[in-house]
Backbone:
């Protein structure tokens, strides 16, 4: 599902990209990662900065959400050629990619929401916009959301 973003939201989402572009992506710690992928039709290398919903220090796995659903270009490109490299501010390293199953994705989303504390209403509004329905943070809503916006995990290869 493709959705259009208001200009102010594009600016907010673009801030981490600017930091990575200027070699300062490491300042973001493990909160964001830069994904490098290769175009399925063009063969051109692309990068996108994604927010990390969960990071597992024990194995280096980072979980992100496909905010534009199954039509996200990076998701389509990785699906076509399997080439994914991830960076947390340094040199990109090859990554294994996996789609989280519904139960694991719901659990990740639940914990991610808790981290937002008093800002949960803002997060829910954003998730509503991305998912195309009024997301209230219920278990039923979480299940519906992860069906529309898959969660993907990247682990060092």
Residues:
């Amino acid at each position: 599902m493709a959705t259009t973003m208001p200009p102010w939201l594009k600016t907010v989402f673009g801030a981490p990209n600017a930091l990575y572009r200027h070699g300062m992506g490491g300042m973001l710690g493990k909160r964001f990662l830069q994904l490098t992928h290769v175009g399925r039709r063009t063969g051109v290398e692309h990068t996108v900065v994604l927010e990390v919903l969960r990071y597992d220090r024990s194995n280096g796995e980072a979980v992100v959400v496909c905010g534009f659903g199954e039509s996200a270009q990076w998701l389509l490109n990785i699906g076509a050629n399997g080439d994914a490299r991830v960076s947390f501010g340094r040199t990109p390293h090859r990554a294994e990619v996996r789609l989280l199953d519904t139960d694991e994705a719901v659990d990740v989303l639940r914990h991610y929401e808790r981290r937002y504390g008093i800002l949960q209403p803002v997060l829910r509004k954003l998730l509503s916009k991305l998912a195309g329905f009024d997301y209230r943070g219920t278990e039923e809503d979480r299940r519906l959301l992860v069906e529309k916006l898959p969660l993907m995990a990247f682990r060092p290869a």
